[in-house]
Amino acid sequence: MAARPHQQMVFINLAVKDVELSKKFFSEVGYALNPQFCDDETACVTVSDAIVLMLLQEEKFARFTVQPVADSTRSTEALICLSAESRRQVDELADRALAAGGSPAGEPSDMGFMYGRSFLDPDGHHFEVLWMDQSAVQG
Questions:
Q1: Domain ranges of the chain
Q2: Which CATH number fits domain 10-136: 3.40.980.10, 3.10.180.10, 3.40.630.30, 2.50.20.10?
Q3: Start and end of every VOC domain (predicted)?
């Protein structure tokens, strides 16, 4: 019997100004916090079995890089795109983010076979939520 291949995970580390506000925001969006890896300077947010957001207080984040920490309220450091199972799920996630204190990051995009919305979290990190009709994707 062949060994199961390793499932690679993605850990997205982001600097935040207020860890408690970030914990509240992402909990209200619908994601679980992993208390084993949360403290006064860190929020560990489980997006899926393979995706984890590590939200680090700016001072703690700065200890992991030799470059200056970006001010995500003034410039875009990354576009983080999360897949959704349906158009409805795109709307539900984006609506929860806006209700939790996020702000729109642009108009919805509807190409028929692909639909997306975007939002900024309280620190200005840019998140995209995207559904794509897999039958329209050429293999």
A1: 10-136
A2: 3.10.180.10
A3: 8-132
